């Protein structure tokens, strides 16, 4: 059961791992807009379409250099969005101030380097414990759900739990890259790592999410991992929308996720 407290403030009760949510990342709608300037395409409109197409939440990454999502986008999303907003952010004082001002449903702490094209790997929570822990604490105290974006590794999960994060999002990029490259052996190994990490994190009491690089080809195996309760997908959906429309692309991804989860439950039974 969910409780809606107003725009952008839906609160989820603890979930059964039989349910799989879809979070749609709208960053790259803003990337296209910013390539030319002006107001189009509008990422807030994309969020509204995603909601109607079956998304359970919206993700937006406000980067230090504002290369895609802007402060105004966050303002508008918080004012108009009916779905919960997951704000991806670096652990900086500027981003903490913005998060505490808006109080989105969730904040996902991610690594960030100005020269990177996209997020490259997960946080090293173990090495950065002293830097990250105060941010986790302040966000939790503000009643914002905190997620750490990490590689599928037991040490990273344990440190995230010790810091007080309620959620971990597993970086799926290595699996998706291997799959896209046709390296079946590596893909199988990376999938096994994701499966083990999801199981271990769930046993620690963490809510387990996953994301990065997920496509139609890779979503089935990831969605079938029973401990995962949310997948966050963005770049692929926005790219495919050029050819098939955003609504139909999200609906197809939602359907593939549901079919994979249903098939995995049947196989277990």
From TrEMBL:
InterPro entries given in the database record: Aldolase_TIM (IPR013785), PyrdxlP_synth_PdxJ (IPR004569), Pyridoxine-5'_phos_synth (IPR036130)
Q: Where, subcellularly, is it found?
A: Cytoplasm
The UniProt entry annotates the active site at 61, 88, 212
Checking Pfam families in the record gives: PdxJ
BP GO annotations: pyridoxine biosynthetic process
| Keywords linked to the UniProt accession | Cytoplasm, Pyridoxine biosynthesis, Transferase
Which pathway does the protein contribute to? Cofactor biosynthesis; pyridoxine 5'-phosphate biosynthesis; pyridoxine 5'-phosphate from D-erythrose 4-phosphate: step 5/5
Catalytic activities? 3-amino-2-oxopropyl phosphate + 1-deoxy-D-xylulose 5-phosphate = pyridoxine 5'-phosphate + phosphate + 2 H2O + H(+)
Which Enzyme Commission numbers does its entry carry? 2.6.99.2
In this chain, 1-deoxy-D-xylulose 5-phosphate is annotated as bound at: 27-28, 63, 68, 118
What GO terms are given for molecular function?
Answer: pyridoxine 5'-phosphate synthase activity
Can the keyword Secreted be found in this entry's annotation?
no
The record lists 3-amino-2-oxopropyl phosphate as bound by 25, 36, 213, 234-235
The organism's superkingdom is given as Bacteria
Q: Which GO cellular component terms are attached?
A: cytosol
**In this UniProt entry, which residues are annotated as the site Transition state stabilizer?**
169
Q: What does this protein do?
A: Catalyzes the complicated ring closure reaction between the two acyclic compounds 1-deoxy-D-xylulose-5-phosphate (DXP) and 3-amino-2-oxopropyl phosphate (1-amino-acetone-3-phosphate or AAP) to form pyridoxine 5'-phosphate (PNP) and inorganic phosphate.
Q: How does it assemble?
A: Homooctamer; tetramer of dimers.
Report the NCBIfam families cross-referenced here: pdxJ, PRK05265.1-2, PRK05265.1-3, PRK05265.1-5
Q: Which family does it belong to?
A: Belongs to the PNP synthase family.
Task: Please state what the protein is called.
Answer: Pyridoxine 5'-phosphate synthase
Record organism: Candidatus Phaeomarinibacter ectocarpi
Q: Which gene encodes it?
A: pdxJ
């Amino acid at each position: 059961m969910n409780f809606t407290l107003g725009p952008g403030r839906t609160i989820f009760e603890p979930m059964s791992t039989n349910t799989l949510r879809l979070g749609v990342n709208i960053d790259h709608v803003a990337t296209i807009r910013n390539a030319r300037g002006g107001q189009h395409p509008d990422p807030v409109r994309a969020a509204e379409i995603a909601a109607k197409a079956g998304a359970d939440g919206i993700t937006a990454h406000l980067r230090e250099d504002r290369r895609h999502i802007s402060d105004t986008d966050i303002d508008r999303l918080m004012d108009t969005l009916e779905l919960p907003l997951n704000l991806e952010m670096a652990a900086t004082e500027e981003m903490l101030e913005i998060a505490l001002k808006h109080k989105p449903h969730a904040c996902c702490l991610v690594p960030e380097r100005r020269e990177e094209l996209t997020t490259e790997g997960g946080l090293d929570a173990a090495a950065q414990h002293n830097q990250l822990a105060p941010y986790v604490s302040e966000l939790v105290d503000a009643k914002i759900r905190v997620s750490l974006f990490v590689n599928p590794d037991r040490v990273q999960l344990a440190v995230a739990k010790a810091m007080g994060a309620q959620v971990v999002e597993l970086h799926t990029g290595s699996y998706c890259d291997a799959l896209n490259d046709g390296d079946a052996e590596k893909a199988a190994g990376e999938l096994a790592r994701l499966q083990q990490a999801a199981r271990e994190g769930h046993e620690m009491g963490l809510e387990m999410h996953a994301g990065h690089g997920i496509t139609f080809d890779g979503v089935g195996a990831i969605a079938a991992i029973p401990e995962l309760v949310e997948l966050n997908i963005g770049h692929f959906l926005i790219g495919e929308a050029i050819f098939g429309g955003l609504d139909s692309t999200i609906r197809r991804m939602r359907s593939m996720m549901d079919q994979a989860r249903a098939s995995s439950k049947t196989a277990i039974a």
